[in-house]
Amino acid sequence: MSERPEMFQGVDELWMDGEFVDFDDAQIHVLTHGLHYGSGVFEGVRCYDTVDGPAIFRWEEHLERFYQSGKPYDLDIPFDREELTEATVELLRREELDSCYIRPIAFYGYDSLGVSPGDCPTTVAIGAWPWGAYLGEDALENGVDVMVSSWRKHASSQIPTNMKTTGLYVNSMLATEEAKGNGYTEAIVLNKEGNVAEGPGENLFLVRDGEIYTPGLAESILDGITRRTAIELARDMGYTVHDQATISRGELYTADELFFTGTAAEVTPIRSVDDNVIGEGTKGPVTDELQDQFFDLVEGRLDGYDDWFTYV
């Protein structure tokens, strides 16, 4: 067995098809349907070490999207919500994780290898490991430099864009690798109409004249859980939020502020787009206030959001 990547050092077990298994034994056959055709769905979830102890943030919403994501592919997840919740909580306890990233995944397994999955069983697994700021700790404070990718986002008439389908993220990989290859941290992807969709793994928000705009679900974006959180938080803070906006590429360059949201990215400011400095080139005041409120929320320091936490 080759040495594990640094990300997974210290991880002892995963949950797989109803059992806790040793990390190195969590394996599948190379002729697994999901490996060849991207026929699977997944979630990215965070557990935070709150003032009241470790808690999974918006687990119920993530779990609902997990089940909904499988429906277009007739991917039946053979475990109910209670079973997956119990498995996840127990996994975090066994791994002694207070703050971590959680990855549930379900995919068509090993049986036949035609495009139609036929009688392929559904394999379900859950992993968890410590994971800090996705785009880097410095990014949270100072922002990231991004480019508009030459790759376009799939249209919802081609594939369900509001679901977390494994194969769909090849599009995200292409955009991210293009950005990194050109010296940028991340990309912004346009939809087929040429309007702003999102980042490869993040939703996007724009601030103009103190109001907040984000592309609507009809713009071929993921219905992000952190996007929903940011919208609700911002409104609770008194901001006007336009959550069904159509944003042109040109509007990116003239924005007062831009920021990404996502389970991994959390709330990350964008410093420049295609070498055009956004605002003052620093984290803007709206982004700063919303980011502070977000971290107060996920660390359990805000009242009124208790139903968003599943305590470990």
TrEMBL record:
Q: In which pathway does it act?
A: Amino-acid biosynthesis; L-isoleucine biosynthesis; L-isoleucine from 2-oxobutanoate: step 4/4; Amino-acid biosynthesis; L-leucine biosynthesis; L-leucine from 3-methyl-2-oxobutanoate: step 4/4; Amino-acid biosynthesis; L-valine biosynthesis; L-valine from pyruvate: step 4/4
Give any GO molecular function from the UniProt entry: branched-chain-amino-acid transaminase activity
Quote the InterPro entries the UniProt record gives: Aminotrans_IV (IPR001544), Aminotransferase-like (IPR036038), B_amino_transI (IPR005785), BCAT-like_C (IPR043132), BCAT-like_N (IPR043131), BCAT_family (IPR033939), Class-IV_PLP-Dep_Aminotrnsfr (IPR050571)
UniProt keyword annotation of Transferase present: yes
Q: Which cofactor does it need?
A: pyridoxal 5'-phosphate
Q: Give the EC number.
A: 2.6.1.42
Please give the SUPFAM superfamilies that the UniProt record associates with this protein: D-aminoacid aminotransferase-like PLP-dependent enzymes
Q: Which residues form a coiled coil?
A: none
One of its GO biological process terms is:
isoleucine biosynthetic process
**What is the catalytic activity of this protein?**
L-leucine + 2-oxoglutarate = 4-methyl-2-oxopentanoate + L-glutamate; L-isoleucine + 2-oxoglutarate = (S)-3-methyl-2-oxopentanoate + L-glutamate; L-valine + 2-oxoglutarate = 3-methyl-2-oxobutanoate + L-glutamate
What sort of enzyme, by top EC class, is this?
transferase
Q: Name one Pfam family in it.
A: Aminotran_4
Q: Which keywords accompany this UniProt record?
A: Amino-acid biosynthesis, Aminotransferase, Branched-chain amino acid biosynthesis, Pyridoxal phosphate, Transferase
The protein's superkingdom reads Archaea
Give the family, as the similarity comment puts it.
Belongs to the class-IV pyridoxal-phosphate-dependent aminotransferase family.
Name the job this protein performs: Acts on leucine, isoleucine and valine.
Q: Which NCBIfam families match?
A: ilvE_I (TIGR01122), PRK06606.1 (NF005146)
What is the name of this protein? Answer: Branched-chain-amino-acid aminotransferase
The organism encoding this protein is Halosimplex rubrum
